[in-house]
Design a protein that fits this description.
By secondary structure, the protein is α+β, with helices and mostly antiparallel strands. The chain contains six helices and seven strands, in the order H-E-E-H-H-H-E-E-E-H-H-E-E. Strands 2-1-5-4-3 form a five-stranded antiparallel β-sheet, sandwiched between helices. A two-stranded antiparallel ribbon has the order 6-7. Strand 1 and strand 2 form a beta hairpin. The protein is elongated. The protein starts with a helix and ends with a strand.
Length: 206
C-alpha cells in the first residue's frame, strides 16, 4: 500500500467514525462491548455522553459508571447483570443515570452474549436515552389519575349527606387516587390575622 493509499484509507476510516458518532448522537444512542476473559472494555463516544462523560474515553471506567447509576436502580440492574452472567441471554433494563450536574436521565440498556473470534462468551450492548418517552408516559399516568379522581369527586358530591362528609371524601380521593401524600381543606376566617382553619385532612401527616 502506498502512502497516498494509506492516507486515503485513514481519511475514510475517520469519516466513517465521525458519521457513526453523529448518528448515535442524533438517536440518543450509545454502544459498548466487554470481554470477561481479558477484561477488555470498549464503549462509544455516544455511550460516554449518555452517562455525562465528556471527551474521548477509550476504556469504560466501571467505578465511575457505577456511581452514576441512580442509587435506587443499582440493586435491580445488578441482579439483571448477575442473572445474565449465570445464564447468558439477551436482556433489557430501564434505569436512571445521575449526571454530574445532578440531572436525571432515563436510559434503556440492551445487551446480549456472543461468541468472540477466539471463543468464549463476550458481551455487547446498547444504551438509549428514553427520558422524553418516560416523562411523557408519566405525564399520561398523572393525567389519567387526575381524571379518575375528578370523576370520583363528582360521585362523592352526589352521595354526601353534609359538607363535612364531602370534604373528608375529597381528601381521601386526592390521596388514594390522585397520588398525593397529603390532602387538606381549610376555611379562611374573617379576622385580622387571616387565619386558615383546617376542617378536613387525609394522608401521611394528617
Amino acid at each position: 500500500m502506498t502512502k497516498d493509499e494509506a492516507d486515503d484509507t485513514g481519511a475514510s476510516v475517520h469519516r466513517t467514525e465521525r458519521r457513526f458518532d453523529a448518528s448515535q448522537a442524533i438517536a440518543g444512542l450509545g454502544s459498548w462491548e466487554f470481554d470477561p476473559s481479558t477484561g477488555e472494555r470498549w464503549w462509544s463516544a455516544g455511550c460516554a455522553r449518555l452517562f455525562g462523560f465528556e471527551g474521548s474515553i477509550d476504556v469504560l471506567p466501571l467505578d465511575e459508571l457505577r456511581d452514576r447509576i441512580h442509587p435506587d436502580d443499582r440493586e435491580t440492574l445488578g441482579s439483571i447483570v448477575a442473572e445474565s452472567a449465570r445464564e447468558p441471554a439477551a436482556q433489557t433494563a430501564e434505569f436512571r443515570a445521575v449526571l454530574p450536574d445532578n440531572r436525571v436521565r432515563w436510559l434503556e440498556g440492551r445487551f446480549e452474549p456472543w461468541s468472540g473470534p477466539i471463543g468464549g462468551v463476550q458481551w455487547r450492548g446498547t444504551v438509549q436515552d428514553i427520558t422524553t418517552h418516560h416523562d411523557e408516559a408519566e405525564l399520561g399516568r398523572r393525567i389519567s389519575r387526575a381524571r379518575t379522581a375528578l370523576s370520583e369527586c363528582n360521585r362523592a358530591l352526589t352521595r354526601a349527606t353534609d359538607e363535612q362528609e364531602l370534604l373528608d371524601a375529597i381528601c381521601r380521593i386526592a390521596v388514594g387516587l390522585a397520588g398525593y401524600s397529603l390532602a387538606w381543606v381549610g376555611f379562611a376566617e374573617d379576622d385580622e390575622r387571616k387565619t386558615v382553619r383546617p376542617v378536613a385532612s387525609y394522608g401521611e401527616a394528617a
